């Protein structure tokens, strides 16, 4: 099968699960014998232009912008798989494309300009009834000017979003995300749940069960931003218990300063995916404190499962949903002042059972083999449709 992946790559200096997914999907499909071509725009390249902010805003509002149609026609794919067009691809080409088209809804941007359904630490769906709400609250990049194009583009609601309106099949990466889109009027007959996957790399050094219980080591991995809940996590982190914080973001300087007197919390900065995967197996567990619902289990969670590492997550996020379903760790409440310490201790004690369970869930639900089979099934359904 010949597959064209269309994606606007996010800035490389900001961690992006979407970029990782597109690259991993290309590799997985190629390894399975499919022909794959990536049709891309790149923020790192386009943002060098002085006029880029105006160009991007105009593209979002009008749908006029870079058009992949000519390249797609040269490729003549069996299916086009759109991942992200925002903000560097136009959307006017979508109704004119006559071949099968599948799209992955990585976030909630067709519903919410911020893409998170979160405002001030709480769930927010105001834009489903008042598109101007996002502008008032500066929901995108904390700027009314930056939010305005998204609010204008989304004023008719998610079912009228150009990608959603055109796609033959819409992939969400969790049932929770599918439910959110159904709730705003997207037809259930086109929604398909296909979780993201990560390659099965060789794990790094593995510590013994006794080491994990006597000397537990925990990991936070992700963007250091408000929706990830890292500020709340560090404020409630038990004294004396080691936590490595891997990632970067606009909160990094403030968090480093606020916790400079806590040697148990180490800020390691942004690490390459290869280095993270090498280190993961040595941790007692991963902590996922995200405050927003997330569109599905984050890749950091899936990487932990692949390494046989259990997870502690805050209720309401994508990792917590999967933990509750598959028993790969423990879930704590949103006000996790006391139960966090208890959960961390319980997971360290039960790691000999939870580690193999995490690995088994990865193999069954999140391996690249399972992913490719699910994707090709969706492609065939789109072609028949």
Automatic annotation (TrEMBL):
Where in this chain does the entry annotate a coiled-coil region?
none
Q: Where is the Glycosyltransferase subfamily 4-like N-terminal domain?
A: 17-201
InterPro entries the record matches: Glyco_trans_4-like_N, Glycosyltransferase_grp1
Pfam families from the UniProt entry: Glyco_trans_1_4, Glyco_transf_4
Q: Name one GO biological process term.
A: carbohydrate derivative biosynthetic process
Quote the CDD domains the UniProt record gives: GT4_PimA-like
**Molecular function terms, GO-annotated:** glycosyltransferase activity
State the source organism's domain of life. Bacteria
Q: Does the keyword Glycosyltransferase apply?
A: yes
Keyword terms of this UniProt record:
Glycosyltransferase, Transferase
Q: Protein name, please?
A: Glycosyltransferase involved in cell wall biosynthesis
Q: Which organism is it from?
A: Actinomycetospora corticicola
């Amino acid at each position: 099968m010949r597959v064209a992946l269309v994606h606007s790559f996010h800035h490389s200096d900001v961690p992006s699960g979407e970029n990782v997914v597109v690259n991993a999907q290309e590799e997985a499909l190629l390894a399975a014998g499919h022909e794959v071509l990536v049709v891309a725009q790149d923020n790192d390249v386009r943002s060098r232009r002085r006029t880029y902010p105006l160009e991007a805003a105009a593209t979002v509002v009008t749908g006029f912008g870079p058009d992949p149609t000519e390249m797609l026609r040269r490729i003549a794919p069996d299916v086009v798989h759109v991942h992200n067009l925002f903000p560097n691809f136009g959307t006017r080409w979508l109704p004119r494309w006559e071949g099968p088209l599948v799209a992955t809804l990585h976030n909630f941007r067709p519903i919410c300009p911020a893409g998170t359904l979160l405002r001030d630490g709480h769930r927010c769906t105001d834009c489903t009834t008042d598109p101007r709400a996002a502008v008032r609250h500066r929901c995108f990049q904390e700027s009314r000017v930056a939010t305005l194009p998204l609010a204008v583009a989304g004023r008719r609601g998610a079912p009228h979003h150009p990608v959603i309106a055109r796609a033959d099949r819409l992939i969400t990466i969790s049932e929770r995300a599918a439910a959110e889109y159904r709730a705003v009027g997207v037809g259930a007959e086109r929604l398909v749940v296909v979780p993201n996957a990560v390659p099965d790399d060789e794990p790094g050094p593995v510590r013994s069960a006794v080491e994990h219980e006597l000397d537990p080591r925990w990991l936070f991995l992700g963007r250091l931003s408000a929706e990830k809940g890292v500020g709340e996590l560090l404020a409630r982190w038990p004294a004396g218990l080691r936590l490595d914080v891997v990632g970067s973001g606009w909160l990094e300087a403030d968090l480093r300063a606020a916790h400079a007197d806590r040697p148990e919390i180490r800020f390691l900065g942004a690490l390459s995916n290869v280095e993270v995967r090498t280190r993961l197996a040595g941790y007692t567990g991963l902590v996922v404190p995200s405050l927003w619902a997330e569109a599905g289990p984050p890749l950091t969670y899936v990487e932990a499962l692949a390494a046989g590492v259990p997870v502690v997550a805050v209720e309401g996020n994508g990792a917590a949903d999967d933990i509750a379903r598959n028993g790969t760790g423990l879930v704590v409440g949103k006000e996790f002042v006391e139960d966090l310490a208890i959960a961390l201790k319980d997971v360290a004690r039960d790691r000999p059972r939870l580690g193999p369970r995490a690995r088994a869930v990865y193999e069954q639900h999140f391996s690249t083999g399972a992913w490719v089979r699910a994707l090709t099934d969706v492609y065939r359904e789109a072609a028949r449709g």
